[in-house]
Input
Amino acid sequence: MSSGHGTVTAFFTVITGLVLVIVGLVLDWPPWVWGTVAMAFTAAALLARRLMRRPVDPLGPEFTHEPDVPIPPPERRERVLRDVALPTSEPDYDFRFSATVRWCPLDPPRDGPPFSAAGVAVDAVLERAGALTETREPHRGSLAQHQLDGELAVMRPDSGGRVLAMAEDVTLSLSEADALRLRKLSTVRKDEVLWSHERRYERDRREYLREDVLSDTGSAVVWWLTKNDEQISKTVEDLGVLAQLSAAANNLDVPERFAHIVPHPPRPPEPDEPTEHYGHGGSALNQPGLGANGAAPPSPADHFERLLGAMGVPAEHADSGVLARCLHEGARAVGRTEAAEAIRLRFDPAAIPAAEDSDPNSVDPAQNPPF
Output
């Protein structure tokens, strides 16, 4: 019986005894009644005390060999993990994983070696977490954290069937340096994609203008009419400009049928007009319609003089006259004596025979200036 029960029993006994004494005094009991009541009251008090006493445990700690050894505390079945590196889909970036691992032991297999339930539970949780994070991109850590929280919220057995393990309070993060690198890489990728689209857009525009709109003068005229369908007269006036534009877009000369309407057509030099000599590179030869700085193009005689220079023959040498006569005879054979005549007059004026002067088919260079 505990001390609380003993106190209640004593209090109840005293109150009952006082009540019996008061009743005996009021009723004026005879002596033999007082003796009987006192004996009955004492017997009842002893019986109540015996009934309220706790039964003795035969296996209680007081009957053991070492009754003073304390009872061991219950085993804690949780462990806190902090900043554990877990793999991501990128080899150089890791998640930082933190959680509280909880477990419940299962019946150990027969003939199995002893094991630590805490270590087995932590290994099982990390294995499940790593299998999920290794397929996730590092810059999507917040999404991976919520998915991992749901995955680890269920008690599952480990691979050996020794414990049931789960995790709570899951957090997943990247280091600040890795997060900064990923932000920079994302900005670079976005800028690169934007620049690639802009470059492709410009290239498509150039190809459209060169290969479709400005492929020839007719295409340029049709394109211009679609843009200015109410300005037909203005389009006709701009045919020369469109012809020049389409020819320049394809690195070609203006077609002969449009040469007469090209603005500022080239002016052929007079026979006695001095001509400019152009430096190396042959810019006048490459652009027959225009000379350097808008000047008149070199005459055929200038071209022949450059040919003599390339052959190493001075213009005043006798061989230049021989070559001029050979060119003149060949030009006569094909019916193109106009330019060849100017060349012969410049480089071999003494070689003009009298019979050729009286020939009615001969060409007067003063009346027909060379190109």
